[in-house]
Amino acid sequence: MSLHFNEFYNGATGLTVGIGKQLFREQTPFQLVEVFETDTWGNLMTIDGMVMLSEKDEFVYHEMMAHVPLLTHPNPKTVLIIGGGDGGTAREVLKHPGVEQVDMVEIDEAVVRASKLYMPEVGDFENPKLNVIYENGLTFVDGPENKYDVIIIDGSDPVGPAVDLFKKDFYEKCHHCLKTDGVLVSQTESPFVESYHDSIRSVQNAISDLFPIAKLFLTYIPLYPTGMWSMSIASKKRDPLSDEVTSDINNRLSSFADTLKYYNQDVHSGCFALPGFVRQILK
Amino acid sequence: MSLHFNEFYNGATGLTVGIGKQLFREQTPFQLVEVFETDTWGNLMTIDGMVMLSEKDEFVYHEMMAHVPLLTHPNPKTVLIIGGGDGGTAREVLKHPGVEQVDMVEIDEAVVRASKLYMPEVGDFENPKLNVIYENGLTFVDGPENKYDVIIIDGSDPVGPAVDLFKKDFYEKCHHCLKTDGVLVSQTESPFVESYHDSIRSVQNAISDLFPIAKLFLTYIPLYPTGMWSMSIASKKRDPLSDEVTSDINNRLSSFADTLKYYNQDVHSGCFALPGFVRQILK
Question: How far, in Å, CA of B77 to CA of B184, rounded?
């Protein structure tokens, strides 16, 4: 392919993806949303020049963002997703038979529209349990109190509209929205990129102050900078690594285990193993 | 930077690294060895256009290639490294106080020369326990029998001179070279790249036939394709995940734990957690 999408993340180092036709391009009030054809990843969505997802690798991010927190909670029924407009996180959440309501608060309807048009397998937008709300997640969390079992903060990188999703004020409000055994997860960038260390620490410090249990976990994402991505989890009651959580995973996955391509019981436990240099960031 | 080194691994997808001066370029009888300056990774060595290591990220690969097998063995004294000419794997092996002799069999002296010149912190070539032998690893293993505690196959990708390092014949010879409680490890490419699945399966099938214990483990490497790399481990006696291994790790690392930036006890256990799609490759 003669055209390449380049995303640089560490000085002049980056990802290069051969692209075909540009399928979608819209400068919204919030950001530049684009979708491109690729040769090997299906369609690729970018926001402000940063990869959000491809059809072929999105399973990793969405499975990890949904199942690590949902399995940590004993019986999640109401789930709030902040961002996540492509629909992939909601699709994974909705696989849990006990989930009754998913509120997805996306600031930018163009993301949902682009996903429906050019990534039709990613979202499960027709599901009657899914409630899509076009609103700023930062103000949405001012409202509900003691309402949600799980909150998933599926925002983009800490530039543009998502920057406040990495600040303590926001996590205080999320804490209020969660029930007494609530669990929260947030994507927190790559530990291999030094310029993101402050964002990781900011979220980890915020949730450590607010919740009795706060941890970082890691996942491989081939089209994200460095291929290593971190997610932060906070829980009011259950530790994601406790026996009561891990011993029940296979049982709770049984109705949809065959749909999973990444997450499983081993991955749930293994993803919390942090290399030395990642531990250093958190000190 | 205006110059970029590009390595494509999945169709038109790849890594792009901004480079400065070319410090080394030699077409040897075996391959093209190059070293470039970069802005954020220190110096970068490539072979036949594929990234081998940078000064800033080499710690991950070398710690994982050395410490996972050495900690699996109860008391490694003699270690054989096939390839590994940059010296990083030997450096990590030599941190173990019980190691008495490391034979490093590198086919291409230019790799050692380039590393000594332009990556002087990577190798520990002055160490009197290190024995560098310039020979083809494939023929070297015809000789010794029942000699080594650990064999580390630190070859390049399965194209060019390293292609036979992924075949069963070679692993049969390695099995003969190993003592009765011997442990072997080999780098086996990225599971995210479909064209490497045959190489992963080839090594896994070979070691599963030859050794009672054979497993795959994973590590993050930011400058390798997709950021996810697999390594295969085979053991004649001890399982790397057994309690006798994992319970002794902290004790055995104690004299050099402060030099490690990636490997630790949690990582040792966690790296064997395989995502669903990786399990599928092995079926």
Answer: 14
